[in-house]
Amino acid sequence: MIQLQNFHFRYDRKKVVFNGLQLSFHPGFIYGLLGKNGTGKSTLFKNICGLLKPTNGHISTLGFTPFDRNPGMLRDVFLLPEEFHVPPIRIQDWARTMAPLYPRFDYVLFENLLKEFEIPTDNEMSAMSLGQKKKCLISFSLATNTRILLMDEPTNGLDILSKTQFKQIIRKLNLEGDRCIIISTHQVKDIEDLVNRITVIDSGNILFDENTESISAKLSFESGSQVPDGALFSEPSSRGFDFILAKGSSHGRQPDMELLYKLIMTNPAVVHSVFNPQTTSHERHL
Amino acid sequence: MNAIFDSGRFFLLLKNRIVENKRKYLLYFAFMAALAVVLLILFFSFSHGFLQYSYYFTPDLKEQIFDRNDHWEDFQEVAFWVGLLISGGLFASSAFVNFQNQGEGIFYINKPGSTFEKWLVEFTIHVVLFSLLFIGLFYLLAIPSNAIINSLAQADFDKLLNGRTDYLDKSFGDPTTRRFHPEIIRHSVFLLEGKEKFNGSALFPFFFLWTYIVFGFVMFGAILFNRFAFFKTCLLAFGLFLVLLVLPFTEEMIIPSGWSYSFGSPIAYQNNNSGNGGGIVRLDENRVYWGSLVFSILVFVWIHACTFFTLKNKRV
Fold first, then answer.
1. May I ask the CATH architecture of the domain A2-219+255-271?
2. Hey, how many other C-beta atoms are within 10 angstroms of the C-beta on B84?
3. What's the predicted TM-score (pTM) here?
4. CB contact under 8 A, B316 and A46
5. Strand order in B259-262's β-sheet?
6. Does B112 touch chain A (CB under 8 A)?
7. Which residues in chain B are closer than 8 Å to A72, comparing Cβ atoms?
8. The pLDDT of residue B191
9. DSSP 8-state secondary structure symbol assigned to residue B125
10. Interface pTM, i.e. ipTM
11. Most exposed: A45, B75, B185, B260, by fewest CB within 10 Å?
């Protein structure tokens, strides 16, 4: 669906963002793209949908070279940017002229989502609050039914209730086999139990790229008054300590994405050894 | 599905663009109409007062009156071209205003349409539709204005005839002074009736071509610069103007040594070499006209092609 091969990108000579990245995004997944601020998540999105051109290497989005901006690709890719602008017209007027550009647009879903977010369709878009604007655009982006939906920090600007609504809506989505959603965020809690694949980038490299099933199978997220020996990561919590152990134990909690993210960022080598034991043993021989 | 142009998609994009910006467009045209009305009122006040002055104090009324007659049509002509150039140039600067805001630019580039369709939408709105609306607005204001200024002139002329009966008798007897008849002072609407100044003129296509070249340049700047695009485009235009002014691209490059323009004319050359008698050579005016026209068309195509390719390679 999306393939990046030997992908290089830099804004100028000093600001190199990606240096030979290899990455694929597959249909049927909701990806959580995690990383610190300034690691290139938004830059990656912009390259995927053709707003920027790779300095070197190759990107393929739905079989197209994104920077060609082929309408066949654009009608099947929607980017919800972190910074956005809405025109000074009513939602229904805007949707009436934008929706026909997306052949799979679902008007019923759009209206239902707006209802769920409690936004009247006759609201003027530019007069709404930041959160309302964001909810309107989230509704529109989901209703486009594009094969690729890129959401850059979608929960920024949403209040607590709206974040919960957002999670519920995404969970309810019946993601057909040919679609994929990539949600980029640095607020890991917001996408917990929402995504089914986690990709972590740092300094232009992929630190982690695994399914949640694989994470559950290989890691155990537990709490206790003491940290057991062999814990891969631990931190104090209201329960005493939260920690991660290798190999799932029967009484482990649901994967704690924030804890996992901290483990990946602080000790990527350990994570690598858990998820890629063969490579690690080979590296040891070397 | 055609990846370069699809009429259905083009009209969807055009409709979307107009709906999204309708308030801005309406405000702009309202402002333009208000400005035109103010200018017309000022002109009426000025011209009426001037005619009164000529009636009381100017001895040679004939020339004065015919000057007045020309003034109004000249004013219309100047108002048309200057109005088209300035208001159109300002309007063209809003063509790719999306790029001044990153979020807006992202939505604009990601709209499902080809770059050519997006460029054509802006060209259609800011060049084609704008020109049609401008001409419509011009008629809308020029026709009633013409009626008003004709009635003002008629009233002044009536007063003139009443006050100078001695002059009237004499002028009716002489065919050369029949121009004093009130019918002759009636002004025409420049676009409708001033054929010798508008579509009958040899300069007519040049005015349009170079106006649209300016529009294209402004649109090019709006894509090229992310912030303060119009200001930077004006600076760039000024810079280009200076370069063209400083570059010795005229005489030294075109005219052979020993020759110069004859009295500054670009189509007549003076041989300054005393051995050849210093003769004057005139170029074929027809060839010069068509050559200039082809050159202007090429510049027009080139500047709009630059706009298209800058849009195609625009990074957001």
1. 3-Layer(aba) Sandwich (3.40)
2. 21
3. 0.85
4. yes
5. B259-262, B265-271, B280-282
6. yes
7. 1, 3
8. 64
9. I
10. 0.89
11. B260
